[in-house]
Amino acid sequence: MDKPHKQVITTYPVALKYGQSRLHVASPIPWHASSEAVKCPQCEIFYIVTSGFPRDKLFEALKEHHDKKQQHPDLIPSAPEWTRIEECTCGF
């Protein structure tokens, strides 16, 4: 991440598209300490999903993207109203 990028600020579970370098979760401990890779059932895209993210909500969002012929976003928040994206100055 040696190029400009943004950070996700939230204490709620999130799903970040694997391989993208535009976003990262700031200070992941303790809220985002545990995560796993989850593959979209309809394509080859993977998301890194922090623990506690409702899987049904994630798969519903992924299906909706395919139904509307949209690209998957870099971020799928479990609580959009409590999630924001800011400029990052982490130095990575």
| Succession of helices and strands | EEEEEHEE
Note the beta-strand portion: 25-35%
Count the DSSP helices: 1
- Rg calculated over all Cα atoms: 13 Å
Key words describing this protein structure:
7 strands; globular; alpha+beta
What does this structure look like?
The chain has 92 residues and is an alpha+beta fold. Helices cover 14% and strands 30% of the residues. The protein contains one helix and seven strands; from the N terminus they run βββββαββ. A four-stranded antiparallel β-sheet has the order 4-5-2-6, with no helix packed on it. β4 (35-39) and β5 (46-50) form a beta hairpin. The radius of gyration is 13 Å and the shape is globular. The model has no long low-confidence stretch (mean pLDDT 88).
Write the layout of secondary structure elements.
Elements: E1 6-9, E2 14-17, E3 23-25, E4 35-39, E5 46-50, H1 55-67, E6 75-77, E7 84-87
Parallel strand pairs: 1-3
Antiparallel strand pairs: 1-7, 2-5, 2-6, 4-5
